[in-house]
Design goal:
single chain, globular, 3-stranded antiparallel beta sheet, 7% strand, 6 helices, 147 residues, 44% helix, mainly alpha
């Protein structure tokens, strides 16, 4: 592990300890322009460990919309309101979607803490960004996933 990777992991853990994740509100999870939201940390401040840069913000399940005047329209796949965008199949409101995401995120954290990567269901809601990042963090800690 490089010193930069170690620093990235340590910084993430200091900012987002398990109790903070348990207490996290939707506004802390995603916030336009913030370099301190959970999604920004995951995408932009831990890229030394594993990158999920690029693509749509829908990869986070729910996100605060930057451009409210864009031509993007809600449909059977995507839901929008005056502040957030989210995958429609995850729930009817941003709050419902965030509750599912948070529940899954905490289950991933718990599985990693137990070093039980088999328990992470890769086909569950939004598993890929979190599981990839978390698996990279665990691998760098010297635990090889058994997938």
């Amino acid at each position: 592990m490089t010193p930069e990777q170690r620093a990235s992991i340590d910084d993430f853990r200091a900012r987002w300890p398990i109790q903070k994740l348990r207490d996290m509100a939707l506004e802390e999870y995603t916030r336009v322009g913030s370099k301190d939201s959970f999604t920004f940390w995951l995408e932009g401040r831990t890229d030394q460990v594993g990158s999920i840069w690029g693509g749509s913000s829908f990869k986070f399940g729910v996100y605060e919309r930057k451009n409210l005047n864009d031509s993007f329209k809600a449909d059977a796949t995507y839901s929008l309101n005056d502040k957030y965008g989210w995958y429609a199949y995850l729930g009817e409101t941003p709050e419902q979607v965030f509750a599912k995401i948070k529940e899954y995120l905490l289950s991933v954290v718990d599985s990693v803490a137990r070093k039980d990567l088999k328990a992470i269901e890769l086909d569950r809601v939004l598993a890929l960004p979190y599981a990839m990042e978390t698996t990279d963090l665990v691998r760098l800690e010297g635990v090889e996933p058994k997938v």
